[in-house]
Amino acid sequence: MIKKYIPVITIDGPTASGKGTVAQLVASKLGFHYLDSGALYRLVTLSAINNNVQLDNELELVILIKKLNYNFLGKEVYLNGVNVTTLIRNEKVSNNASKIAKFKNIRKELFKIQVKFRKFPGLVADGRDMGTTVFPDAFLKIFLTADIKQRTKRRYKQLMQKGFSVSMSDLLINLIKRDIRDKTRNLSPLKCPEQAHLLNTSKMNINQVVNQILDWYKYKKN
Ligand code: C5P
Predict the structure, then answer these.
(1) Ligand 1 lined by 178 (C-beta under 6 Å)
(2) 106 pLDDT above the threshold of 80
(3) Are 151 and 19 in contact, with CB atoms under 8 Å apart?
(4) How deeply is 167 buried, as exposed, middle or buried, from its count of CB atoms within 10 A (0-12, 13-18, 19+)?
(5) Distance from the CA of 208 to the center of ligand 1, in angstroms?
(6) pLDDT on residue 4
(7) Which spans in 101-167 are helix H?
(8) 55 DSSP 8-state letter
(9) Which domains does the chain possess?
(10) Stretch 119-146: mean pLDDT, rounded?
């Protein structure tokens, strides 16, 4: 039997580059499935915190992933039946997620979960290594960037809307530290995949970014 190709659009980029919102909208416009790979790293982190597992204990973290009871329902994320959509976005989880992301066996386990999201009629996947490592044969690869000031402002707004109180200067420092960790780790570091469309969203609104990606997709398809 000939295996049919399932198209994937990968949207990678640093924290607060807007990739989550954009990826969800692109997926919904195309009727594709959606993978928020960062949420998986966040779920492992939250689960470790809840179970008193040390965040540098790679073996225990892998055991945790094998037992991870999670569910994505639309925009909502559940852990053991509890809605953790807001909780996984707090700064403690955010900062620690990028620390556990350096472990080889954690990435290996999460890779197995991520590839299963590839289903008909297609998938939009966002993260750091979607185009480089998880879906290297993706139909379309996008790399989103935005200047650090814009990203800090966006992240500040998101956190305030979710009821978290944070200072802009702390946020800026956290973003810079996470960028460094994500870009300099040995395994699947954050980088622009070959053949990706690079899009700086600093001066663009969400709709402009979504429409640009849909245009690239339609152009390539035809
Ligand atoms: O995208 P998000 O900010 O939710 O990701 C949280 C963290 O998970 C990132 O800072 C990164 O360290 C890690 N991550 C990763 N590879 C991915 C997605 C996220 O290493 N594909």
Answers:
(1) yes
(2) yes
(3) no
(4) exposed
(5) 24
(6) 81
(7) 104-115, 148-161
(8) T
(9) 8-208 (3.40.50.300)
(10) 97
The structure tokens 């594709």 sit at: 32
User: DSSP letters of 181-207?
Assistant: HHHH-SSS-S-PPTTPEEEE-TT--HH
Question: What pLDDT sits at residue 158?
Answer: 85
Write out the E strands in the chain: 8-12, 33-36, 70-73, 76-79, 82-83, 123-127, 140-145, 197-200
Tens digits of per-residue pLDDT, 8-54?
A: 999 999 988 999 999 999 999 999 999 999 999 999 999 999 999 99
Q: Is the CB of 37 under 6 A from ligand 1?
A: yes
How many Å separate Cα 191 from the centre of its chain? Answer: 13
Of 88, 111, 52, 92, which Cα lies nearest the Cα of 178?
A: 92
- Ligand 1 binding pocket includes 182 (Cβ within 6 Å): yes
CA gap 55, 194 in Å, rounded: 32
Q: How far apart are CA 141 and CA 86, in angstroms?
A: 28
Tokens of 13: 């980029």
pLDDT at 159: 85
